[in-house]
Amino acid sequence: MSTTEEATINPDGSTTFDSAAADDAGADAGTGADDMGDTDATEEVIIGTDPALYLALVVVTFAVIFIFIQIRKKRSTADVDDFFSNLDGDKFNLKLPAAVDEYYEVKGKCEADGWVPGQSPGPTPSTHHRMLAQALMKRCIADIPIVTHIQSESAGMNKLYSQSMCSVKQWKSYQAAEAMVSAEVEEVRAEADEIEPGWSQVIWRQAMQYHQMLKQKQEQEEKAKLAQQKALAEKARADEEKKQAEKAKYDAVKKKVDEEKAKKMTEEEKVKAAEKAAQELIKQEEREKQSKKAFKDGSGMKKGFLK
After folding, report:
1. What's the CA gap between 154 and 150, in Å, rounded?
2. Cβ-contact 92, 174 below 8 angstroms
3. Contact between residue 106 and residue 132 where contact means Cβ atoms under 8 Å apart
4. Residue 172 Cα distances to 21, 177, 253, angstroms
């Protein structure tokens, strides 16, 4: 709308405005009308879009993101569980040695023969007492590896579990192995007291000593076996080197003989070639002599023969 208006004062005192001002006013009115029309159209567009649609899109977007995060988290957890479950493999998949069943077989036979558990062997132990004592000590020695294994792993597994660094499956596997070994230790002690009262206090210490002795004996046997294998290997290598040296010597002598033989054959061939050349020369001289003789004989023909 124009801010400047031009007025004309008539002689009669009335006042009139210029047409330009009127035109400006009309233009401003038209522009205002157009603006009002555009505003109405925009309001119609805004009113035509349902806000629930935007809300639904937001909800669907959040749902997709949530599902994606949950799936990824589940996969990550499964991977971690698999990692920890496979970290040590069958580390705690322990089994009692066969000596356990063998002990109970011996005990059954002794009880069938009249042996009574818990009786003191006295100054002269019976045959049944010795058989049972030997079978139980054999069982105890066979248990030493799994007992020491659980003892060495106990502190580490408890630390891992307290820091949530091992899977539930692995922890349960360790607990089952530990319970089995603990029950075996107590059962061996109970059987020891049945064979000889008070033996349970020292049987595991004795078994550990015997186990160390057997281990050292086995290591010595393995060292002796390795030393024997090494000596045999050294002997075989020496024999092979000797054989190779003899073969090399034989090859050298054979090569020298072959060279001498080849050299001798070369000289013989030269002699033969010289003899052959001499013979050819002699034959050639004889042919020349025969040719001259024939020519000489031909010059003595009669003179009238050609007439």
Report:
1. 6
2. yes
3. yes
4. 97, 9, 77
Q: What is the dihedral of CA 146, 149, 150, 152, to 10 degrees?
A: 160
Residue 170 structure tokens: 């692995």
Measure the N-to-C terminal CA separation of the chain; round to a whole number of Å: 166
Contacts made by residues 281-286, CB under 8 angstroms, sequence distance 24+ = none
- Tell me the angle at which helices 127-162 and 203-298 cross, rounded to the nearest 10 degrees: 80
The CA distance from 164 to 84, in Å, is: 11
Do the Cβ atoms of 144 and 207 come closer than 8 Å? yes
CA distance 28 to 41: 20
Tokens 């106990």 -> residue: 154
Which residues on neighbouring strands pair with residue 9, listed in sequence order?
15
DSSP code string of the chain: --S---EEE-TTS-EEE-HHHHHHHHHHHHHHHHHHHHHHHHHHHHHHS-HHHHHHHHHHHHHHHHHHHHHHHHHHHHHHHHHHHTTSTTTT-----HHHHHHHHHHHHHHHTT--TT----SS--HHHHHHHHHHHHHHHHHHHHHHHHHHHHHHHHHHHHTT-S-HHHHHHHHHHHHHHHHHHHHHHHHHHHHSTTGGGTHHHHHHHHHHHHHHHHHHHHHHHHHHHHHHHHHHHHHHHHHHHHHHHHHHHHHHHHHHHHHHHHHHHHHHHHHHHHHHHHHHHHHHHHHHHHHHHHTTS-GGGG-
Report if pTM > 0.90.
Answer: no
Residue 32's pLDDT band, with cuts at 50, 70 and 90, is: very low
Residue carrying the six token digits 């408890």: 158
Q: What is the pLDDT of residues 256-301, one digit of tens each?
A: 888 887 777 677 777 777 888 888 888 888 888 888 777 666 655 4
pLDDT digits (tens, 9 = 90+) for 56-105: 888 888 888 988 888 877 776 555 555 555 555 468 888 999 999 999 99
Nearest Cα neighbor of 181 from 198, 173, 156 is 173
